[in-house]
Structure prediction request, 1049 residues.
Amino acid sequence: MTFSLTLSASDLLLLLPELFLTLWLCVVLAVDFSFKRIVQEQLAYLTILGVIITLACLAWFDMTGITGTLFGKMFVVDRMAIFFKVMILLATILVILLSIDYVHRFSLFRGEYYFLVAMSALGMMFMASANDLLSLFVTLEFATFGFYVLVSYLRDDMASNEAGLKFFILGVFAAGLLAYGISLVYGETGKLVFSDMSGANPTTGLVIGFLLIFAALGFKIGAVPFHSWIPDTYHGAPTPVTAFLSIAPKVAAFAILLRLFLVALATFKPAWALLIVAASILSMTYGNIVAIAQRNIKRLLAYSGIAQVGNVLIGLAAGTKMGTDSILFYLLTYLFANLGAFAVIMAISNSVGSDEIDDYRGLNRRSPFLAFAMLIFLLSLAGVPPLAGFIGKLYIFVAAIKEGLYILITVGLVNIVVSMYYYLIVVKKMYINEPLDSSPIKTTGPLRAVIYVGLAGTLVIGIYPQPFLDWAVAATLMFSNLIGPAASLTPPVTPFGG
Amino acid sequence: MAEYTLLIILFAPFLGALGLIFVSNRQVSLVRGIAAGSAFVSLAASVYLFYAYDSVKGGYQFIQRIEWSRQLGISLHLGVDGIGTPLVLASGILLFAGIFVSWHIKDRMKEFYIWILILAAATIGVFMSLDLFFLYFFYEMSVIPMYLLLGMWGSHTKKYLEMTDPEGLKQRDSVGFIFNFGANSKEYAAMKLVLFLSAFAVAALMGILLIYKFSGLNTFDILILREKAHFSGPLATLIWLLIFFGFASIAPIWPLHSWSPVGHAAAPAATSMLHAGVLMKLGHFSIIRVAFEILPETTRELMPSAAVLCIFSIIYGGLVAYYAKDTKYVIGYSSSSHMGYVFLGMAALDYISLSGAVIYMFAHAMATGMLFAMAGWVYDQTHTRDIPSLGGLSNRMPFISAAFVIGCMASIGMPGTVNFIAEVMIIVGSWNKYPFQVVVAVLGIVLTMAYLFKMMRGLFYGSMAEKYSHSHDAVAVVDRMPLLIMITVSISFGIFPGHLYSVVRSGVDPLIARITKVVPVAELPMNSPQASSHTMPVPVPGEAIAKVTSR
Prediction:
């Protein structure tokens, strides 16, 4: 394999968003070091400005259709990568807004916090573009690196330290599995780039190699049985970091999973579909059942997140173009609902000082706005119309039923009902129970902004999803060749490709 | 303007709810004004719809079609036929009446009106959806407001209050398992309702997804599926069962009814009205709209087995209502008993009996709406629903007791109320097919008399306890108006059923013709595309009757 290290102007253009963000990060760090008196809020808005410019750059790519590959196909910029990068950056902006009030709780290194958040975002942007095994490993570790620090940022809090340690040890273990898997796959096929592997023979070494890689990615997305770090880490980590962790790494890891399974392993679909089906059923069932017993809202969302990942895996098990669309769309709906829910959690935790569900009693009387927002976000996560989560779930089910995954859909539908129970328990606390302390709850501007964005996303996508569906469909045109048997019956009137 | 009627009916309550969000809870009259105004707009448009519906032309009218998702083949396809039209009208009336019944709510009035408007709009949405996706969308959307309405403004049952110690926290509030709420609490009722309905709704959703997949048409549009999709064999049976039991749970048919009386008992008056009046009809309506339209052959084969279940509904509901001591339990079980009549009318698959079933849904909405409104009034005045401890209230509440008698008469099906016409049609229409069930149904009417008279006597006659001597009658216009509206509607359609009958008939005829493959007997609209496109040449009327009945 050869690739030239000389970058032409057009190559640089493809890298522009990442290059810009890298430079901007240096600026953020430099500003933090040079101006002793800088208020950390200004630093936050400075970081957000950089992320917004990067987003604008990506939007320009998406509209003008700038795509291509770099470094001997290691790095790919296609519309799917852009879709994932937009989601990651959107999450980053919202998380930085969430952090502005929270950062006061950190005793040291407040400025570096934003740097680390944006650096993780940069790593995940590279993940969304990773197109071979080497860049997979490097970008994955790059992205996780920032999180190791962020999770244990509350230095004096034992829970945060424990969370960080747990996350680090299991993360390093997963990295080991990943490296071993990559070496096996490379040894069997002699190939690194995903698209070159499609003709490989399914030898034992190759199968084990891919299983190991799946295990490492399963660790990232938190699918059962690789989920054990999730509850404690989510619980102990600073809440904005939990919010970030609950969405961005999952989004980025799904980009890699899609490329890995639908490009590199497209020919082995019958074999890996079973694996995904099993992981999906386990994740949904385990996540939802264990969530019932939770008394801490962060742990509840951790388990609900495991279940949501199980839902997304249904789309992967379908393994079609439509399945891919549904994954992209679902992740988008999940992003708004989940970050919105975390914003409400932070607003409450700021004034109540606790994340216990019992402290949500009578929230409707204390702050009707927060209670209403939480209601909308939880119901969207549960999949109740007319909210975005319902359309996302339905899209995934439609994609799956076209492939005849009846058992998986049945399990998914039953799980909707199970999940409704624990979401409604929170709703019961907020709306039905009377408050123990009826002082009103104040929300600060940045948190309010995140909640408004979350509400807007959840309601708009739920009521008028067409533009977002179109965007997701256009982003996955590269998978148009993956037409399942049922899809060929499609009359020309309603094309899948959009 | 006229072609937007459905959109006005559907979106007026939604917009009202949206507007209420921006109003402060302290501006009481503004809150009431917005709620009543939007309900009135919806009601006025649905009255217009009812009288503008052309029953000679038949078929789906006032059609609106807005592309919603190309990838999934979904469009917001609205339209009403002769079956949907009266139900839309009933929802409009009950919503408007419900707004006034809850006029004096003190706690979080704004939110109450928001959720009740959303609930009513969602049910109205089901009655006019011609797209399976939106049918499910609105159906599921109507469940969550019920949770909040029951939980926030509902009341515990008597047993619960006795059971709970003064602290009460241990029993009432545990995140743990579902039954920790205490089986008589409103939380339990609300949670049971939502989980029950959602569990069966996802079964229906599975049926809808199977229809979507195996039709191979990539569309959720009922009108397209009805023409082009054909299902047969075990698959059709499976889909039919999923659809039937999925939707029959809200109806509620006998073994799936247990959520309903508990929900009624916990709910505030206006919610009970909408719940019993229209929400329960979503079940029958959705079965008619989905199973009857898309799977006519399977309906013909399997619907007779539903006739077996309806016996249990009628008798079981009636007996429990007779022995129940809580006013709302009595009315709630009487509702689930009466829904058995609708199932009987549907199961006979006959022009007369199905028309009777549809009219019965309309009639029952009015009668039960009245009864629940008045039970709510009595509860507000006396703070109890326990029949043995009440009595003699007619001295204090002459208007309410008089209206209650009328409500009971309507519920029993006295001649002069629209319920009578519906009952007679159901009984006459299904006599040929199910004589045994008809006998049971007639006995059920006797049972209805027994428990309603018993409740009436227990509440209003006999001796009154001293502590209720300060209770008030409904005197103000806003308190009397909702009852008067429902009484007027019930009696005027009972005396002049002509238009209602011809509207319903125009919806029932093509449907039964499709299912039984026979052209309707009377007043076949020659120019109706629905009736003529898929039926045989017109036979002599007598022959048609013979075919219908001897099939």
In short: Strands of chain A lie at 68-70, 75-77. Chain A has 19 helices and two strands. The longest strand of chain A covers residues 68-70.
